[in-house]
Amino acid sequence: MRIDVIVPVLNEEACIGGQLQSLSSVDGLHEVIVVDGGSTNGTVDLVKTAPDVRLVFARRGRRLATFFSSFMPMFICPKTRHAGSAKSSRTRR
Hints:
The longest helix has 8 residues, at 16-23. This protein has helices spanning 16-23, 43-49, 64-69; strands spanning 3-9, 29-36, 53-57, 74-77, 82-85. Helix 2 links the parallel strand 2 (29-36) and strand 3 (53-57). Mean pLDDT is 75; it is low at 72-93. By secondary structure, the protein is of the alpha/beta class. The strands form two sheets. It has a three-stranded parallel sheet, covered by helices on one side. Strands 4-5 form a two-stranded antiparallel sheet. The protein has one domain.
């Protein structure tokens, strides 16, 4: 199984190093993508030193779902094995 992890961050300097280190021990981990939303502390510098981590940037205040829908038109939901649009509506209860 291939596992990709997306980690949204904003001023997470105090904990991002430990989080990325923990993720590195996950079996089947294929890729870690850190999305920075405009950090003003040392978050970005720490992420840049982490091996095998891709860093991308979103404008500050931009909603994460909007950011991902701009470059990832499809997603796969492993629980239902259903492909759908990243802009699909939420299930109502």
